[in-house]
Each structure stands twice: as C-alpha cells, then as structure tokens.
Amino acid sequence: MLLLLAEYLQQFHKGFAVFQYLTLRGILGVLTSLILALWLGPWMIRTLQTLQIGQSVRTDGPQSHLSKKGTPTMGGALILSSIAISTLLWSDLSNRYVWVVLAVTLLFGAVGWVDDYRKVIEKNSRGLPSRWKYFWQSVFGLGAAIFLFMTAQNPIETTLIVPMFKDAALPLGAAGFIVLTYFVIVGSSNAVNLTDGLDGLAIMPTVLVGGALGVFCYLSGNVRFAEYLLIPYVPGAGELIVFCSALIGAGLGFLWFNTYPAQVFMGDVGALALGAALGTIAVIVRQEIVLFIMGGVFVMETLSVIVQVASFKLTGKRVFRMAPIHHHFELKGWPEPRVIVRFWIITVILVLIGLATLKLR
Fold first, then answer.
1. 64 domain-assigned
2. Would you give the distance in Å from CA 20 to the centre of its chain?
3. According to Swiss-Prot or TrEMBL, what is its membrane topology (predicted)?
4. Average of pLDDT values for 292-305?
C-alpha cells in the first residue's frame, strides 16, 4: 500500500525510490509489526481478561501448570493482526505470493479461532471437532496447493529440491506437487500447534525459522544470487521477505507478553496460522526439506505424539511420561524455563544447519 504511494511520490522527489529496496521494506516490516504488537498487546490482554477468555489446564499434566488456569488465551490474534497490517503496508500488493501466504495464514487462523472460541467461550472442552478442524485445514491447504501449481511459471517451481546435492531435483508433476504441498502446509500447522504448550516455546522457534525462510525468499527471488548458490530462482519470491519480517516483529512483540511467566497464550488461532505460513513459504521457495531440518523441534514434538499414541494403542504402554515431549521433560524434573530455552538453543543450531545448505552443494 505504501509502496504505491512511494511510487507516486517519486515523480516529485527521487528519494522515494529507496522504498523499492526489499531490504528497507523488510526492516520497516519488522519495526511496524513489532510496534503494533507492543502497542496493542496490553489492550488485548485487558480485553481478554474482561471477557474472561482464559486458558483451561489439563489436570493430568505437570502440577506447575495448574497456576496458569485462567491466563488469557487467543493472543495469536495479536500476532496475526500485526503481521497482516505490516504486510499490507509494506508489500507489493500485485505479488501473488504475498496474497497466497497472507490468505493461508488468516484462513488457518480462522480455524484456530473457532476452535479456541468453542473451548473458552462456549466451554466446550472438545473445541472444534478434530474431523472438522482437519477438514477445513485440508480445504485451505489443498486450495493453496492447487493455486501454486496452476500459477507456476516454470518447471522448477513444482520440483522437489534436495539440499546439499547440486543436481538432485525431482519433478513432482501435478499430483505429486499438490500432495506434498498439502502435507507440508497442514503438517507444519499442526506441528507448531503441538509445540505451543509452554510459555514462549513455540513462538521463538517460529520467529527463527521464519527469519531463515526470509533469507531463502530474498535469495531465491534474485536471479544472480540464485544462480550463484545453485538454488531455484523463483521470480517474485523475494517479496515474501516483507511477510517474514512482519512475522519476526509480531512474534517478538508477542514474546514480550508470552515469555515465562506468560501474561497471554497464543492459542490455536496463532499456532495453526503461523505453522501454515511457514509451510507455505517453504513450498514457494522449494525448501520443504530444509524446513523439516530447521523446524526439527516441531518435528520432534509431533513424532513424540505419534509414537506415544501408537505405542499405547499397540502395547498399552507409554514411551514418554507425557506427550508432546516437552511435558515429558517437565515430568522428569526440568523447570519450565530450562525446557523452553534448551528447545530454543536446539532451534538455533538447526536453523544454522538449514542456512548452511545454501553453500554445501
């Protein structure tokens, strides 16, 4: 939006041309969403408290969590509103990738909002039934996958790229691309949601992975960098650095209130949306495998639930004291801040490994 204004003002002063630079708009995107989150955060927390939109706590979990009962939830709306406003202000709104990522984020956020609303307002412990949650996630995930396939401009945009191998690329075709994209988007959405169980545990890895994906977006959208690094050149993908920057700013702003002990929780409205956003961006820049590496904490949390459920159904025994795995470490005696910070450290290491694949080819 402001880019259009800057383009108009260039005829009066050439200095406004500086807003054409992605790096500047990325920085402005971070600052805008961060300021919005910090500004709106106290008001949103007070509003949630007034409406008595508080978190329910499992009685079979760590006893330390019982004190969190009633803490305002659905704070993910703060993140999404900050991201959306900042993205709309600083992005090139003629870019299709901006709109598809923003649409996926908000639509998955709507699914999470309905789930949270039924849990905390209607006092329905089930929330949105799983079958309907997955149905709508599937509808939006498949919609994004079909759109990206139909609008692909060259074969590389629908090819699976294997990192660290110069010539390892697998053409997916229509069915393969749509299926892979669906699983990446929906899987990422649910993986982040499963991770969101401790104060700040999910948001910081999301910020770190989102920032790294922003680097991939910038490089993939630049033909010279893409050719030099032997990564797919995806015209227009560079514009997503503004969205990734907005995600970083909004995430850090939310962490200000979500850090231990949390004043507000993200809820499904934030977790489902942010996970879907990461998955969609990874698909666009053809870095699904790198996302799997960088989001290793999300993967670990998801696998712990799968293993726990499968083991209990098949043998009647549990592998972990409690799933997702962050609760297992709590029940082993780790203080909550220790679990959180150590998972953050693991994410930093995995993100660095993911970024290293840019040169290891």
1. no
2. 26
3. Multi-pass membrane protein
4. 96
Mean pLDDT of 157-166: 87
**Mean pLDDT estimate for the chain:** 90
Residue with tokens 């799997």: 292
Q: Is the pLDDT of residue 66 over 80?
A: no
74-106 burial, b for 16+ CB within 10 Å, e for fewer?
Answer: bbbbbbbbbbbbbbebbbbeebebbebbbebbb
The three-state DSSP-derived secondary structure of 24-65 is: HHHHHHHHHHHHHHHHHHHHHHHHHHHCCCECCCCCCCCHHH
Q: What are the structure tokens assigned to 66, written together?
A: 């019982």
Amino acid, res. 281: I
Would you say residue 160 lies in a domain?
yes
Domain holding 272, by residue range, is 22-54+69-288
Give the contacts of 109 (CB within 8 A, at least 6 positions apart): 76, 77, 80, 269, 270, 272, 273
Q: How far apart are alpha carbons 264 and 167 in whole angstroms? A: 47
Q: How far apart are CA 69 and CA 57, in angstroms?
A: 6
Is residue 126 included in any domain, yes or no?
yes
Judge contact between 202 and 112, C-beta under 8 A: no
Count CA atoms closer than 13 A to 344's CA, side-chain side: 15
| 12-55 confidence digits (pLDDT tens) | 777 777 878 899 999 999 999 999 999 999 999 998 888 777 66
Q: What is the pLDDT of residues 307-323, one digit of tens each?
A: 999 999 989 889 999 98
Query: Using CA atoms, how far apart are residues 6 and 21, in angstroms rounded to an integer?
Result: 12
Structure pTM? 0.93
Please indicate, yes or no, if residue 5 is contained in any of the structural domains.
Answer: no
